[in-house]
């Protein structure tokens, strides 16, 4: 089913005659004079459409497909605005910075360069396309740091109050790994999760037998959790866990999944003192404030821009 859907999505982008080519060359939006074509939009939307298991050729799914396209278009518009702002501020991303990110990805997935390129090819992507995505992400981080991060303030009083309210859950997170179990569609995820909860089956055993996520042969171990790089959703989920915890079932890209937070080699959950916890609490409190400030900044960029949406 998944293979068929991917083929349908790829076929959607194929130029099948002059009429189809004309459709793909249509303009989806113009941002301060920079054009986004339908072809670019549809190509960028492929991963999201695949994850949502949407067939763009099915009229019954047209509304859902349109919602995905508009969401992706909104992100593309923001990428252009960020890039234009970076040019104005003379901010850039060096090729070596992108190289470092690629190396981290390969190391996290325990892949050689050749294996990594083969995996990208299977996903109908390339290193060049991934480099572009990484560069845009790094540029966004830099602009956020300059225009957002420096304007976000977390006070000592807020940090102290948070510690007093959560000190029984402030654990030393250094060296913690995240194990990910994404259940295959043909298994009873609820029953397996119940076995993990009761201790009848370990998380590692379940991942090796039932997971379709990377590193299933390593018990689902995805490597060290880089807390500062977590998106808000994962940050909120993992910071509530202590070493050894396994989440309840949750939805991940249309599949049932679970996460195991653990310290390789064992070791108890060490509580932090107030001084030790300060950086961790600062990061926790700063994240939602930064997101709120980024929304304000995004609104400002849009208000100053000339944006013509033609979708």
TrEMBL record:
What name does this protein carry? Periplasmic chaperone for outer membrane proteins SurA
**One Pfam family here:** SurA_N_3
Keyword list (alphabetical) reads: Isomerase, Rotamase, Signal
* Organism placement in taxonomy: Bacteria, Pseudomonadati, Thermodesulfobacteriota, Desulfovibrionia, Desulfovibrionales
Answer yes or no on keyword Cytoplasm: no
List, for all copies, the residue spans of the domain called PpiC.
180-248
Its signal peptide is 1-21
- List the molecular function annotations (GO) for this entry: peptidyl-prolyl cis-trans isomerase activity
């Amino acid at each position: 089913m998944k293979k068929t859907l991917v083929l349908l999505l790829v076929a959607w982008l194929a130029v099948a005659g002059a009429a189809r080519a004309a459709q793909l060359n249509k303009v989806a939006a113009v941002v301060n004079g920079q054009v986004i074509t339908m072809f670019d939009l549809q190509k960028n939307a492929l991963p999201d459409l695949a994850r949502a298991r949407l067939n763009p050729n099915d009229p019954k799914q047209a509304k859902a497909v349109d919602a995905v396209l508009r969401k992706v278009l909104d992100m593309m518009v923001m990428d252009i605005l960020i890039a234009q702002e970076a040019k104005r501020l003379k901010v850039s991303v060096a090729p070596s910075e992108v190289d470092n990110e690629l190396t981290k990805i390969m190391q996290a997935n325990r892949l050689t360069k050749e294996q990594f390129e083969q995996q990208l090819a299977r996903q109908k992507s390339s290193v060049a396309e991934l480099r572009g995505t990484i560069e845009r992400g790094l540029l966004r981080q830099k602009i956020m740091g300059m225009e957002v991060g420096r304007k976000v303030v977390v006070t000592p009083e807020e940090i102290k109050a948070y510690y007093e309210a959560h000190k029984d859950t402030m654990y030393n997170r250094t060296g913690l790994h995240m194990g990910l179990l994404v259940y295959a569609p043909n298994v009873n995820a609820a029953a397996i999760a119940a076995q993990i909860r009761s201790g009848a089956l370990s998380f590692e055993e379940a991942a090796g037998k039932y997971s379709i996520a990377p590193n299933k042969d390593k018990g689902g171990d995805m490597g060290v959790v880089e807390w500062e790089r977590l998106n808000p959703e994962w940050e909120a989920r993992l910071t509530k866990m202590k070493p050894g915890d396994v989440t309840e079932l949750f939805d991940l890209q249309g599949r049932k999944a679970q996460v195991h937070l653990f310290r390789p080699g064992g070791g108890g959950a060490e509580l932090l003192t107030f001084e030790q916890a300060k950086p961790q609490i600062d990061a926790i409190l700063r994240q939602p404030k930064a997101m709120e400030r980024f929304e304000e900044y995004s609104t400002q960029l849009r208000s100053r821009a000339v944006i013509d949406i033609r979708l």
